[in-house]
Design goal:
Elements: H1 3-8, H2 12-17, E1 21-22, H3 26-51, H4 57-77, E2 80-83, E3 89-90, H5 93-102, H6 110-117, H7 124-127, H8 131-136, H9 145-157, H10 163-190, H11 212-215, H12 221-236, H13 249-281, H14 283-301, H15 306-323, H16 337-347, H17 349-353, H18 363-370, E4 406-407, E5 412-413
Parallel strand pairs: 1-2
Antiparallel strand pairs: 2-3, 4-5
Length: 414
């Protein structure tokens, strides 16, 4: 990989001028999030058109506009650079296309994207040239659900994002879509979809037959949907108020399916995942408490006196309150030495500038010297150094105050 190739991917304008984009660019990440949001609306709108109302022209326009957005994103994938296993940025067009078309390691898969874009609704012309049939053949668009999860997976891998928030969004999306699809299916078991020149009709002895709102001409699609979504929410969460329930065999089987989906999605994945997320929110504190308990046990086992034990425990408590238990030493040990020196020089700049003996010292020496400056925390009343101790350190007061005590055989000074 030449230097010019890597440099060409650093900025949006330079990369686009060469015909490539990078998934690391903020604008590209924003586009990915937008495409995922468009995919969510597609998975929501198309089942509604099929199950409830295929006469609304505005919804059809929105549906095909979302298809256009997704088609544009598929085209962009053929120009999106990636990082291989060796850490090299690959911008070769052939390698990019091969990865998107055939590689299982790519975040997006061409076969699934192509399946969700296939205009299967054209087949409706051969079977039944109706709005209802046209909407039914468009249900292949729900395959884009995988793209929503893929984008959330990419965001979760980033260290700058909150894992708990991304996972919560994923569980929310899965729960909403599952309940939404069940609501659409539940409505179709009893009632017909609204078609041009027709009215909504509900079969006898079904769950919707006794509800006047379901067949009333003035009832909106939103009202009909709310009845079904209410049933779906109550069923998948096992609430089951019973005011809307299965009346015929087909509805009973569908209710069983909905309850199984609720067990798998809500009780299995959602509740389990949310429990794990909430537990991990306090994982740092749990680790620190475990470490503190080990220290307490060791102090008792080694017969350390009570006064000293209280001082040690107080130190750990203050360390948690002031630094959340994070030890600064070694936190940047994985960085190259030049980065460590730069960070240490910046962090200790104010301290070194207070000492006059360092005024004329070379900057390179100060950078190396700052690597040997460590932060120490002392409690009130604790002795830092006593007369007669071997001197091996120079102390700088960063925050707080110290008391210097000097004594002779006959006198004691402060």
């Amino acid at each position: 990989m030449s230097t010019t190739e890597v440099t060409g991917l650093r900025t949006f304008s330079e990369g686009c001028s060469k015909g490539y984009v990078s998934m690391e660019w903020p604008l590209v990440k924003l586009w990915q999030n937008f495409v995922a949001l468009a995919a969510f609306f597609t998975c929501f709108i198309d089942p509604v058109i099929f199950a409830y109302d295929s006469t609304n022209t505005s919804i059809w326009v929105v549906a095909y506009f979302l298809d256009a957005i997704f088609l544009l994103d598929v085209i962009i994938q053929f120009f999106t650079a990636f990082v291989d296993k060796k850490g090299h940025v690959v911008i070769e067009k052939g390698a990019i296309c091969k990865r998107y078309l055939f590689s299982a390691e790519a975040p997006y898969h061409f076969m699934l994207d192509a399946l969700s874009l296939m205009p299967l609704e054209i087949l409706a012309l051969a079977f039944s040239n109706t709005y209802f049939a046209w909407a039914g053949f468009r249900l292949n668009r729900v395959v884009r659900t995988y793209r929503i999860l893929a984008v959330l997976g990419l965001r979760e891998e980033e260290l700058s994002t909150s894992t708990s928030i991304i996972r919560s969004i994923r569980y929310l999306v899965i729960g909403l879509l599952a309940t939404h699809w069940l609501a659409c299916g539940w409505f179709m078991l009893s009632c017909s979809s609204l078609v041009p020149g027709g009215e909504v009709t509900c079969a006898n002895e079904t769950w919707a037959y006794g509800l006047e709102d379901m067949t009333n001409v003035n009832t909106t699609t939103g009202t009909r949907y709310m009845y079904a979504f209410y049933w779906g929410s109550a069923t998948v969460t096992s609430t089951g108020y019973g005011d809307i329930s299965a009346m015929v065999t087909e509805e009973q089987w569908f209710s069983v399916l909905a309850m199984l989906v609720g067990i798998a999605v809500f009780f299995g994945m959602l509740l389990g995942g949310l429990t794990s997320t909430l537990t991990n929110l306090d994982s740092q504190r749990a680790k620190y408490v475990h470490r503190l308990n080990s220290v307490k046990d060791n102090l008792v086992d080694t017969s350390v006196n009570k006064e000293l034990r209280q001082l040690v425990i107080g130190y750990y408590n203050y360390l948690w309150l002031s630094r959340r238990g994070v030890q600064q030493e070694g936190i940047f040990s994985m960085l190259p030495l030049c980065f460590q020196a730069e960070i240490s020089r910046t962090t200790n700049k104010a301290v070194l500038e207070k000492v006059s003996i360092f005024d004329e010292i070379d900057e390179g020496f100060l950078r190396m010297l700052s690597l040997n400056i460590y932060h120490e925390l002392y409690l009130p009343g604790q002795i830092i150094i006593s007369r007669g101790d071997t001197g091996h350190s120079m102390f700088f007061i960063n925050r707080g105050a110290v008391e210097v005590l000097f004594y002779t055989r006959d006198l004691f000074y402060r």
